Structure of Phosphoglycerate mutase-like protein:
Amino acid sequence: MHFNTLLPLLSLLSFTEAAETLLGAYIFHRHGDRTPKSLPPANLTSLGYDQVFSSGQYYRSRYLTNSSSKIHGLNADIVKLSQLAVTAPVDNVLQNSAMGFLQGLYPPVGETIGVQTLANGSSIQTPLNGYQLIPVNTVSTGAGSEDNGWLQDASTCENAKLSSNNFFTSNEYTNLLSGTKDFYSQLVPVVNGTFAASDVTFKNAYVVYDLINVAEIHNASIPSNSTLTPSTLFKTRTLADTHEWGLAYNASDNMRAISGMQLAGEILIYMNSTITSGTAGSSANKLGIQFGAYASFLSFFGLADLPAANSDFMGIPDYASSMVFELFTEAAVPSGGFPATSDLQVRFLFHNGTASNSSEPVVYPLFGGSDPAISWNDFANGMNKFAVSTTQDWCTKCGNTTGSCAAYAPATTASATPVPNKSGGGDGHGISPAVGGVIGAMVTLAVILGTIAAAMLIGGLRVVSKKTPAGAGVASQSVGVEKA
Ligand SMILES: *[C@@H]1O[C@H](CO)[C@@H](O)[C@H](O)[C@H]1NC(C)=O
Ligand SMILES: *[C@@H]1O[C@H](CO)[C@@H](O)[C@H](O)[C@H]1NC(C)=O
Ligand SMILES: *[C@@H]1O[C@H](CO)[C@@H](O)[C@H](O)[C@H]1NC(C)=O
Ligand SMILES: *[C@@H]1O[C@H](CO)[C@@H](O)[C@H](O)[C@H]1NC(C)=O
Ligand SMILES: *[C@@H]1O[C@H](CO)[C@@H](O)[C@H](O)[C@H]1NC(C)=O
Ligand SMILES: *[C@@H]1O[C@H](CO)[C@@H](O)[C@H](O)[C@H]1NC(C)=O
Ligand SMILES: *[C@@H]1O[C@H](CO)[C@@H](O)[C@H](O)[C@H]1NC(C)=O
Ligand SMILES: *[C@@H]1O[C@H](CO)[C@@H](O)[C@H](O)[C@H]1NC(C)=O
Ligand SMILES: *[C@@H]1O[C@H](CO)[C@@H](O)[C@H](O)[C@H]1NC(C)=O
Ligand SMILES: *[C@@H]1O[C@H](CO)[C@@H](O)[C@H](O)[C@H]1NC(C)=O
Ligand SMILES: *[C@@H]1O[C@H](CO)[C@@H](O)[C@H](O)[C@H]1NC(C)=O
Ligand SMILES: *[C@@H]1O[C@H](CO)[C@@H](O)[C@H](O)[C@H]1NC(C)=O
């Protein structure tokens, strides 16, 4: 009798104990605790520095020092720069977070390791007890992410702005805007030092939440203390979640998820280089690390169908959260070589907030499936359904035809040709991207919302918005942001 239950258990055990070798990984990481977006420039705080440093220590113990989970061939103590690629947008909070993380990942090597002997026989150790220098390169997207409240500010993709703006005309948005008026008006005394009362609405759900969240962590004397009950704080956060999810992803209009598409492209390209280097007998390109904003997490979560695994993925990840793609094999790794591509597998892990020995990242199935790991080919095919990997693809999807995109513009020569209506399909608003680019400014959007007959207004909007600098509209979304 007992054998019946034991057998499956045993086979499960032998399966999990099959020798597994980790061959590479890609980490996408949120910054640590910072000052509010509404008071730019935002800075990484001491707490935030500590968070990313701890996370770096955790990943060091996972990928560099633990013999059963280390990445095959990755240097454990002295960094070999060709094995790493560390990137972050041009943004102080994200760049500093990446540096803090690296200090935990590759700490100073001390007085003995890494000493160099010169021609004249004297020995040299680097300053700061063997501190290691690791460059953080910039990625083209997401500049100034942490100083902007309106998520598409960090994108120059026209169709993404248009698509995100569609959220502001959705029923979900308009219902919440009117349904939460009273809720937000009771928050006014708490935030009126930073926001005008008229700006404290669902329209600014994230920046209002962000300001309160930062004050809850840092300010011992936050005003109107009695207002900020646990249930009020919870509602402030979940409304911000809904707001940001709506801007970051929509299944039937997914151009707004461009940051997730680009991230998917970057992950694929890097992991592909892990495989090509390994196959060529090189030890390069083993660990990719990118720091980025929560909005990129949300867009990616939506595209990879992670809410099917857990609806928590529709919430904003906490500071210092990380998601990881691990490339591994259960086949033998030939010495100096690499397993066949058909023997490679990928799994996805996520940790909400700072990962540590006592709270490790958890595996979730990708693409709405149920397998904790999938073959490399299935992974690449799944990602390629939405990944944007080339400039040409970006330009076409974004509807950009000028600047670096001019080379890929449609052959028609007329200079003012409207770009193709590729805003993600099916929105039926009849707003062409040419107009949408203008609408990208939130001031004009407010005009739309204030008046119901949107279609009638479109002609008028062109006139209004031509007098409105794009930046001004943006600032009205991210209220309290004086300068980007
Ligand atoms: C961030 O630091 C700069 C100085 O480096 C300071 O001027 C600014 O006020 C700080 N921001 C906040 C929100 O504290
Ligand atoms: C090394 O990793 C394995 C598997 O992830 C884990 O079970 C073990 O506790 C780790 N060992 C140490 C010393 O952290
Ligand atoms: C050896 O060379 C280094 C660098 O040029 C110099 O700083 C050091 O003083 C030299 N040591 C001796 C013993 O000459
Ligand atoms: C895309 O188009 C917009 C509007 O024309 C422009 O502001 C932005 O700089 C363009 N981006 C690129 C990368 O060409
Ligand atoms: C904020 O609201 C409180 C309470 O209504 C009021 O006493 C205070 O003067 C206001 N502060 C500002 C800067 O408007
Ligand atoms: C903390 O909150 C109080 C009350 O609103 C405010 O006067 C003070 O400037 C805040 N302190 C910081 C460091 O933000
Ligand atoms: C409100 O103030 C009390 C005492 O001053 C403090 O214990 C409590 O943590 C404060 N609550 C919030 C939400 O800040
Ligand atoms: C890596 O990318 C190249 C170029 O797109 C492709 O030909 C190759 O099949 C990819 N390798 C793997 C292992 O997917
Ligand atoms: C992360 O935690 C926050 C609350 O701190 C929650 O709103 C969000 O849904 C969580 N995300 C995931 C993927 O667990
Ligand atoms: C985590 O585990 C590793 C390996 O067991 C150990 O070296 C490290 O000190 C631990 N880190 C913390 C913060 O406990
Ligand atoms: C552009 O819009 C027209 C009419 O709304 C539609 O038939 C066509 O499929 C759209 N093209 C694209 C690329 O979305
Ligand atoms: C998602 O897009 C569809 C089609 O454009 C639209 O009907 C719906 O309102 C959108 N939902 C949100 C939350 O933006």
